Amino acid sequence: MSAGAPIPAQPGRTLDVAAVDELVRRRARSHRIGRWVIHALLLILAAFFLMPLVVMVMTSLKSMPEIRTGTLLSLPQAPNLDAWRSAWSEACISISCEGLSGNFINSFIIVIPSVLLSVGFGALNGYVLTKWRFPGANFVFGLLLFGCFIPFQIVLIPMASTLGFLGLSGSYAGLVLVHFVYGISFTTLFFRNFYVSVPDDLMKSAKIDGAGFWAIFGRILLPLSWPIVIVSVIWQFTNVWNDFLFGVSFAAGDAQPVTVALNNLVNTSTGVKLYNVDMAGAVIAALPTILVYVVAGRYFMRGLMSGAVKG
Amino acid sequence: MAGLTIRGARKDYGRTRVLHEIDVDVADGEFLVLVGPSGCGKSTLLNMIAGLETITEGSILIDDVVVDKLDPADRDIAMVFQSYALYPTMTVAKNIAFGLEMRGVAKPERAAAVDRVAKLLQIEPLLDRKPAQLSGGQRQRVAMGRALVRDPKIFLFDEPLSNLDAKLRVEMRTEIKKLHARLGTTIVYVTHDQIEAMTMATRIAVMNGGYLQQLGTPKQIYDRPANVFVATFMGSPPMNLLPATVRGSGEQAHLEVALGPDGVGGATARTPLPPNVAPDQVRDGRAVLLGLRPEWFSEGATPPPGPVWSFSHPVEVTEPTGPDVMALLSFGEAGITEHGNGELTVRLDADHAARPGDVLQLHADLAKASLFDAESGQSLLLATAGAAPGPDGGEAAHDTATAA
Question: Among A59, B23, B74, B227, whose Cα sits 20 to 30 Å from the Cα of B269?
């Protein structure tokens, strides 16, 4: 083909201005429709998942007569916090009538040290397993991973006798120890996989700069681990906070976490079932985890994704 | 005076030996480049000098002190990594000062040292930035700053330029060389780029397969390669290796070079022996490789003075590179060996009008030519500087040494 010759139009494929306009319009329309479908679907799904929370909050704001007469989804006629007050400080759980407040605080007393310990040791384990490798490091990591797959129920009896042996039965410390030991498998897994992606040249460089084991950990690795720290904290916080089985098995009386108390509150079999108090109690028990997700959720996603993509 | 001595250094990973008996002596203020293809052991050797890898056998001395058992931090070395290895959460200033901080240098002194280095490398405006906010070239500078600030006895560079684009690489190359001239500190520099090695080094250690192939000045390495590996690895295009046979002996000895079917005046050509060949290596019938760099040829009707091999050969194809024209001549099947593809590359002037099929009258400068044993690949020249026994033991190399 000689240069400069006009490009022959293909028969039936000539594009005039109107046809191009029409094409653009059609594309835009189908794009718009697609958008609407996606948004509608997302809205429906969001409503579906939010429904239980909405029902709980609305019921907790109603009075008992209103609950009996109205439907599950009707808005509260005279919203009031009586049920919340009751669940927090007045409701009777077994023999004491002090509400969930004490147990709520118990949960914090258990959760905070458990989370700090398991995340701290998980970070240290991950650091040693990736950056100070020793013969058999992979085997040790394999054993730790194994811990992620052991069902709670299996360890109940050995754990109970261990706690008894240590003299920690029925105490906060005992429950903290259980959660710490159980959580360390997961946090080690998180941190190990995160630190694997940290280039070894950083370690070499730090060693030449004269930094030792702790200086490298504290000054170089920890500061860049915040995404995985947040993931681990959220993971551990929710797991420990929501735990029921260990709480009911290893915490006695005054040391019971809120989940156990909530169960006892809801399952009280005497008298009228106070749905509004039950719902308020359930929301109170769920509030900290909800808050943690709201505050740190976006870091959670970012942390889970980090390492998946380079950079 | 901060010299570096490597004595019989060996490295084994389990049963695999990755470094065989490396002996290198580096005087104070030298710029030693370790060069070789990937997997040749050059980075391992550098890490051994740094103390990041243990030495299986042998020892390393910095300033005549055995450092084998010392931690990297105690060897008074600084290292620049290919990945720069900047601490991502620290600012540039903190990155540079970290090594001083770990050594307990007081804050005001640290700040002064950082300022001095920042000025030297012209990175003052970057001091408050994080590494992620820097371009590749800037990161490179910061990495150098981190090494410079401690004023160590030896700088170690691990392929520091290979992550930069081509233009920046050339700039930084010059800059590192200037820096070395200014500071006079001993540098050990690892690269796989033979041009970097040639341009920067005061001495080059060519490595392959865990063996030190040759240690010498860039000129020695380029002009008098110890074996065919060095001859073909260094230089671009590489040295031509033409299969030839020694004929006759004593004063009558000469070479018979295989020219292939295209050869003008027969499939073989007769040429004098290169004058530097060790006389005791000349044996009638010995298969050898004649080593000639592309620029050692001249073209024209009259041969230049000195020992030359003059021959005529048709051009197969020409490749203009800008400053010169490379003419490729086919030697056919006869030229194909494990070290050559049967082609001879000849550098011509840029305005040479050679076209494929033209017959060139060529003169190879035999005063520069190398000769290698076809079997062992070792040089047969007299006193090849820094020749080291290669993987095959190198009887030839030994002979050469004796002859010298």
Answer: B227
User: Considering only residues 101 to 130 of chain B, which have any Cβ-Cβ distance to chain A shorter than 8 Å?
Assistant: 102-103
Q: Tokens representing B263?
A: 């050869």
Sign of CA dihedral B131, B133, B136, B137: negative
Q: What is the ipTM of this complex?
A: 0.81
Cα–Cα nearest to B403, from B383, B387, B374, B385: B383
Q: Inform me whether the pLDDT recorded for A311 exceeds 60.
A: no
Q: State the best of B87, B94, B100, B150 to mutate against chain A, taking most chain A CBs within 10 Å.
A: B87
**Are the Cβ atoms of B85 and A201 closer than 8 angstroms?**
yes
Verify whether the Cβ–Cβ distance A210 to B82 is below 8 Å: no
DSSP state of A148: G
Q: What are phi and psi of B333, to 5 degrees?
A: -55, -35
pLDDT number for residue B396:
38
Closest CA to B48 of B32, B33, B59, B39: B59
Q: Does B77 touch chain A (CB under 8 A)?
A: yes
B54 touches chain A (CB under 8 A): no
Confidence of residue A13 (pLDDT cuts 50, 70, 90): low
Q: Tell whether the model's pLDDT for residue B401 goes beyond 70.
A: no
Within an 8 Å CB–CB cutoff, is residue B82 touching chain A? Answer: yes
φ, ψ for residue B174, nearest 5 deg: -60, -40
Cβ–Cβ below 8 Å for B88 and A205: no
Burial class (CB in 10 A: 0-12, 13-18, 19+), A75: exposed
Closest residue, chain A, to B53 (C-alpha): A204
Average pLDDT over residues B32-60: 93
Cα separation, B86 vs B91, whole angstroms:
9
Contact residues on chain A for B70, CB-CB shorter than 8 A:
none
Question: What are the backbone dihedrals phi and psi of residue B388, each rounded to the nearest 5 degrees, phi first?
Answer: -120, 145
The pLDDT > 90 percentage for chain A reads 43
| Tokens coding A33 | 């429709």
The string of DSSP codes covering A209-277 is: TT--HHHIIIIIIGGG-HHHHHHHHHHHHHHHHH--HHHHHHB-GGG--HHHHHHHHHT--SS---HHH
In tens, the pLDDT along B179-209 reads 999 989 999 999 999 999 999 999 999 999 9
- Beta strands at B57-62 and B16-26: parallel, antiparallel or unpaired: unpaired
Place of tokens 């990175």: B123
Please say whether the beta carbons of B102 and A211 come within 8 A. yes
Q: Are A211 and B47 inside 8 Å of each other by CB? A: no
CB contact at 8 A, B188 and B4:
yes
User: Which of the residue ranges A8-17, A44-53, A142-151, B44-53 would you say has the lowest mean pLDDT?
Assistant: A8-17
Three-class DSSP category at A108:
helix
Measured between CA atoms, the residue of chain A closest to residue B76 is: A208
A209 Cβ under 8 Å from any chain B Cβ:
yes
- Cis before B218? omega within 30: no
d(CA B214, CA A285): 74
DSSP string, A168-189: -TBSHHHHHHHHHHHHHHHHHH
This prediction has a pTM of 0.80
CB contact under 8 A, A204 and B87: no
**pLDDT given for residue A273 in this prediction:** 82
